[in-house]
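Sequence decides. Our protein:
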Amino acid sequence: MRVIAGTYRGRKLKTPPSLETRPTSDRLRETLFNILAPHIEGARFLDLCAGTGAVGIEALSRGAAHATFVDQSRKMCGLIEANLQSLGIRPEEFDLITAEASGFLRRNLKKQSSPFDLVFFDPPYAADYEAVLDLIAEGASDLLSEAAVMVVEHYKKKDLPESFRGLRRDRIVKQGDSMLSFYRVP
């Protein structure tokens, strides 16, 4: 796994030794960031269920101002930290939080000092997507900036609703077994 473009282009990232984690493929990350390109520069990026941190690191490499990485596994957070250190990413450019996605959202919705411009949510395919998406939609006014984009990576056979409270899906991209659903506040 490598960083595709930007400041850290071509740099390799450490990956987990087991198959318990399903990192977003280089090809799918490239597609994602080609779509998000107009929104990256100076953005605050939230990587929920961050795994290796590759997506948030890609955002930083392409000009995001700050990335928050959230993963429930201490082992994966250690891997993310190792990847950030190996690239020389400064501590003020990121937050690394060991927490389950819905727990992080419940604790931080009202405490968020600066809203996120981009949110990437890539849980295990068997996870309860709707509970987390409902929490994000519920706290959208505190959590998301006015023009925020939320992207959910999911299995191609997993149907997600067109909308969650105030969030509305405006685009779907399919690649292999994965899909990306793009949500915005209308």
In short: Residues 45 and 74 are 21 Å apart (CA to CA). The beta strands are 44-48, 66-71, 94-98, 116-121, 144-155, 163-164, 167-175, 178-184. The chain has one domain: 26-184. The longest helix spans residues 26-40.
